[in-house]
């Protein structure tokens, strides 16, 4: 798909500038560059392949050519909208869940803070990065990667968590560009609700492993173990520890894992 065809495909959506790149390092890097240059809000960078796609803490996100979705949407804070990176991450994950559930009837869940799972395997990830102007947020770049075709899934020895693709869990072939449009529509529908309690409730309701024993793993620290209770207003995870206390876990360099799966 070239840029013109992509623009035509997304014509009904109120996007800013739209561009398609056959190969990019990372759509988020390009999106940050665009934001710094002052592109219109809701501009969209799409790549067929990423050579240095990244996740949180600069972990690698693989996007081979022709089989996945990798895109970044530039979001500017509205007048009354306090953009929090945490809520935007939830927005991206929730929008992917919305589409997988409503259009494709898949049991999608959010592995807090930034992954989308179907049947305990990851098929999408979200990375939100912020462009500052002094002390103010100029833009946020909402990057989403989705494994669409079966051969978009990295080999399991490269991974620390089970991965899958939309086609694999569906048992049929999905049109990547249709899926892109559906996810963008879901993002645009949810965006005005970002500050509302209803958004938080929907995000919470879609959390994976809710009420189940999980561990929060961090390098060089003892894991926290407890049950997921939900989220606080800022999108921090509310974890009920075994001593009954509730601990708030802020997103960062951590891994969430389910325990006692027997
Ligand atoms: P984990 O998925 O291990 O819990 P995380 O949530 O801590 O990871 P992220 O930054 O969210 O870490 O995801 C990056 C990780 O995702 C990489 O370290 C790699 O293991 C995995 N990964 C990379 N590319 C893909 C992909 N296309 N599909 C699924 N997983 C991927
Ligand atoms: C994760 O699970 O760690 C998040 C992965 C986010 C990947 C997307 S693909 C589009 C955008 N460009 C990047 O380099 N990363 C995000």
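Q: What amino acid sequence fits the structure above?
A:
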């Amino acid at each position: 798909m070239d840029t013109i065809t992509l623009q035509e495909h997304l014509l009904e959506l109120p996007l800013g500038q739209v561009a398609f790149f056959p190969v990019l390092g990372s759509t988020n890097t390009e999106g940050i560059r665009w934001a710094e240059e002052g592109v219109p809000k809701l501009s969209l960078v799409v790549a067929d392949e990423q050579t240095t796609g990244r996740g949180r803490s600069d972990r690698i996100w693989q996007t081979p050519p022709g089989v996945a979705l990798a895109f970044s949407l530039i979001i500017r804070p509205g007048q009354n909208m306090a953009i929090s990176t945490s809520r935007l991450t939830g927005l991206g994950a929730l929008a992917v869940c919305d589409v997988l559930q409503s259009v494709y009837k898949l049991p999608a869940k959010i592995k807090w803070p930034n992954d989308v799972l179907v049947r305990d395997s990851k098929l999408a990830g979200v990375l939100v990065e912020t462009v500052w102007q002094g002390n103010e947020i100029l833009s946020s770049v909402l990057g989403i990667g989705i494994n669409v075709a079966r051969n978009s899934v990295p080999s399991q020895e490269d991974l620390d968590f089970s991965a899958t693709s939309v086609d694999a869990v569906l048992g049929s072939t999905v049109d990547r560009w249709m899926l892109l449009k559906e996810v963008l529509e879901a993002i645009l529908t949810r965006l005005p609700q970002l500050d509302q309690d209803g958004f938080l409730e929907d995000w919470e309701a879609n959390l994976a492993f809710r009420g189940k024993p999980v561990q929060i793993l961090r390098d060089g620290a003892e894991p926290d173990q407890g049950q997921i209770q939900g989220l606080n207003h800022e999108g921090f995870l509310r974890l009920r520890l075994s001593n009954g206390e509730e601990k708030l876990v802020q997103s960062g360099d951590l891994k969430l894992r389910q325990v006692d799966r027997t």
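Q: And what stands out in the fold?
A: The first strand starts at residue 18 and ends at 24.
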